[in-house]
Design goal:
This protein is α/β, with parallel strands linked by helices. The protein has a domain at 12-128: 3-Layer(aba) Sandwich (Trna Endonuclease, Chain: A, domain 1). 45% of the residues lie in helices and 18% in strands. It contains eight helices and six strands; from the N terminus they run H-E-E-E-H-E-H-E-E-H-H-H-H-H. Helix 2 (73-80) links the parallel strand 3 and strand 4 (86-92).
């Protein structure tokens, strides 16, 4: 599926929209999909460009546009592999040869060019540990798990993770993490999927995945209204 193309070098929103169109395919996103733009990891030390959960697996997509450097790519991949079942690097065509050399063989490599995604290397699923999965959650969410399964809560995050990991199985951990992330990001993900259901996803649609997008649009509309009011008052003063 082809998306809108910007003149010159590829930009990150263009690549993200192409990724999502590729995942969406002809059948649309699976019912329980969760899409997260700029997902912060482990106390905001790193952020995944695009995270995707399909109720079975946890995916991380690292985007490298034509304007990006690859200097941090190796460290980013190493970090993301700790948390996600599969990591995919999606890069502008100019970067592909270097990306293939940098990324381990089990990491997927997709090429972005002419508004389309080309799968260069599929990569493979490698299930992460329940300890690492729990680190995707907020401390309040982990303590909710502890309250439910161990009658304990209000522990520091590191202690809460260790205790939670000792109390529940990997299958239950995956279900809980998916459910809690779904609860946290449901509104933006559902809005995005709903608004793009019957059409091609555009670069401008990526803003729908931001929880602050509605607030920004409201502020912009208010600023525009205020400007129009000031202009009208000025015209009245000039007339008088």
């Amino acid at each position: 599926m082809k998306v809108e193309k910007h003149q010159g070098r590829s930009l990150e929103p263009e690549i993200k929209s192409a990724i999502l169109n590729h995942l969406k395919g002809r059948e649309g996103f699976p019912k329980e999909s969760i899409i997260i733009n700029e997902f912060s990891l482990d106390s905001h030390v790193r952020r995944v460009d695009l995270a995707y959960f399909d109720s079975k697996n946890f995916y991380a997509f690292e985007v490298k546009s034509g304007a990006d450097s690859l200097s941090r790519l190796s460290g980013q991949i190493e970090e993301y592999l700790n948390y996600f079942d599969k990591v995919v690097v999606v890069a502008d065509a100019k970067h592909i040869d270097r990306v293939v050399k940098i990324a381990p063989t089990h990491v997927g490599v997709w090429e972005f060019g002419d508004g389309r995604i080309k799968v260069v290397r599929r990569g493979r699923i490698a299930r992460t540990s329940k300890y690492q999965l729990l680190k995707l959650l907020k401390v309040s969410e982990i303590n909710w798990i502890l309250k439910k399964y161990a009658a304990l809560h209000r522990l520091p995050k590191s202690k809460a993770i260790n205790l939670a990991a000792s109390k529940i199985s990997i299958s239950v951990t995956r279900e809980l993490v998916f459910s809690l992330l779904g609860r946290r990001f449901y509104s933006t993900s559902e809005k995005f999927i709903g608004e793009t259901k019957d059409r091609v996803i555009k670069a401008s649609d990526i803003d729908l995945l931001s929880p602050y997008a509605v607030l920004r649009r409201a502020r912009k509309q208010r600023s525009q209204s205020e400007l129009e009011l000031l202009q009208e008052l000025k015209r009245l003063q000039d007339f008088l």
